[in-house]
Amino acid sequence: MKITDEVRISDNGFVFNSKTGDSFNLNPTGLELIKLIAEGKDFNAIRDIFLARYDMEELRFEKDFYEFCALIKHHQITTVENPLDFK
Amino acid sequence: MSKIKITIAVTGLNNTDNPGPGVPVIRSLKESELFDLRIIGLVYETLEPGIYMEGLCNKIFQIPYPSSGSDLLIERIEEIHQHEKIDVLIPNFDAELFSFMKNEERLLSKGIHTFLPTMKQFQERDKDRLPEFGKKYGVKVPESLNLGSMNQISEIKEKFEYPVMVKGKFYDAYMAYNPEQVKQAFNKISSKWGLPVIIQEFVKGTEVNVIALGDGHGNTIAAVPMRKQYITDKGKAWGGITLSDDKMLEITRSLIRKTNWKGGMELELIKTVEGDYYLIEINPRIPAWVYLAVGAGQNIPEALVRLALGEELAPMHSYHSGKMFVRYSYDIIVDLEKFETIAMKGEI
Questions:
Q1: Which residue of A has its CA nearest to B229?
Q2: Among residues B51, B3, B1, which one has the least CA distance to residue B26?
Q3: Are B46 and B109 found together in one domain?
Q4: Which chain B residues are Cβ-neighbours of A20 within 8 angstroms?
Q5: ipTM more than 0.85?
Q6: With an 8 Å Cβ cutoff, are B227 and A21 in contact?
Q7: What are the distances in angstroms from CA B232 to CA B94, B139, B227, B236, B237?
């Protein structure tokens, strides 16, 4: 999963896709997540970071992570070559 | 560098809720560092807001509608030219383009330069000929059917699935979900814009637009893609944002190259979720949102004037994506004398 070249992410959580003209507001957790994705970290690495930082169950993280990934893919913020590959 | 002293006449000062491009064209020209400008505003109606905007035009003249005859219109332009010495004329209405294109040589012989599409280019992109245009120039267009009478409405279901778009030859578009709604739209459109009424396949997606300028030799001198962010009930952009979309630029450059497009244009496209682009309309002139392109880095009216004067220009490639425009309405307080002068004398 890769952040599309045309996407700009501001430190305050404002995400702008200059290819589609869409913009989104992320909450601090969403921003943290998208920044880790932008750094090229895979699911396992991001999960380890989140589980170390927050008091949460692994299953809950996994569910929320994939939901987030599906959402940003739907809005063309990321590109995934294999739709089943979220790594 | 000394500035070029130039007089430019501009139409379309109707900055209403269905805005003409005149005012933004003038704003763009005033930002040029190349010109020492004199602006002549040409208006059809006495309440076109551009007449009353302080500092916009040096002189304003009322001109007759093209529907009262091309000759009358051109004679009036020639009469104005005798006093004002117009160097370049920029028409901004679809309905007047035909008259100015037809009289391009006549105007030039008097020293009035224009930079307009050729008659062939203008007619080829007519809405009722869009399928042929798409086929000839290799661009996807929605399927369409031209209705010459209401009897043909029954043919729609053989060719399309509802909903369909019902469009006028020049203006107006309605979405119709059944034959009854097509009938209503047909009556509204045909009474206003005549026949044919065009039935167009409804393509689901996002409407995106490109403003562009062709030099008449196949080169794209300027092109900026945009997405409307706020649309009025008349379908006009009240806010928009520039996009970074290579595919839209590729379609634009390809069309300008293949048609040798001369002048300003606006491409209206639908981008589907699959990422396909369907051309739904080509407006053969600068659109009212031109000032966004200037703000993004491409002064299209300035380039158009230079082309009209016979300069050869290198294509502009860069612009800022993510630049936005937000339109607003504003009340100008006008003294009756000003209105009286334009109404009685036809100039101010």
A1: A21
A2: B51
A3: yes
A4: 206, 227, 243
A5: no
A6: yes
A7: 20, 28, 14, 5, 6
User: Which of B158, B175, B201 represents a domain boundary (last residue)?
Assistant: B201
* Co-location of B111 and B14 in the same domain: yes
Chain A residue numbers touching B243 (CB-CB < 8 A): 18-21
- B240 within a domain of the structure (yes/no): no
* CA B146/CA B150 separation, integer angstroms: 11
Q: How confident is the model at residue A87 (pLDDT cuts 50, 70, 90)?
A: very low
List the structure tokens of A29: 């957790």
Q: Across residues A59-63, what is the average pLDDT? A: 96
Query: Of B206, B229, B321, which has the smallest distance from its Cβ to A18's Cβ?
Result: B321
Please give the average per-residue pLDDT across B36-56, as a whole number.
Answer: 97
Among B162, B186, B201, where does a domain finish?
A: B201
Q: Is B138 in a helix, a strand, or coil?
A: coil
Residues above pLDDT 70, as percent of chain B: 100
How far is it, in rounded angstroms, from Cα B17 to Cα B14? 9
List of E strands, B16-127: 35-43, 59-62, 88-90
Spell out which residues of chain B touch residue A10, defining contact as CB-CB under 8 Å: none
Average pLDDT rounded to a whole number, residues A31-40: 95
Q: Which domain holds residue B32?
A: 4-115+331-345
Mapping DSSP onto H, E and C, the string for chain A reads: CEECCCEEECCCCEEEECCCCCEEECCHHHHHHHHHHHCCCCHHHHHHHHHHHCCCCHHHHHHHHHHHHHHHHHCCCEECCCCCCCC
Cβ separation B243–A20 shorter than 8 A: yes
**CA Rg, chain B, in Å?**
20
If asked whether residues B86 and B175 sit together in one domain, one would say no
CB B193 within 8 A of CB B168: yes
Here the CATH number for the domain that contains residue B52 is 3.40.50.20
How many structural domains are present in chain B?
2
pLDDT in tens, B8-20: 999 999 999 889 9
> Structure tokens of B341?
């002068």
CA distance B170 to chain A (A): 28
* pLDDT (tens digit per residue) in B94-147: 889 999 999 999 999 999 999 999 999 999 999 889 999 999 999 999 999 999
Report CA-CA distances (Å) from A74 to A20, A28, B315.
Answer: 12, 20, 35
Tell me whether residue B102 is in a domain: yes
Q: What is the end-to-end Cα distance of chain B in Å, rounded?
A: 33
